[in-house]
Amino acid sequence: MKKARFEIMKFAMNSLSGEAKQDAETSLAISLGAKRPKNAYVNYKELQATRKAEKTEKEARRLEHVKPMKSKKPDPKNIRKGKKVGHKLETTGVYKLKVLPRNSKPQTKSNDNRGKRR
Question: pTM (2 decimals)?
Answer without folding.
Answer: 0.35
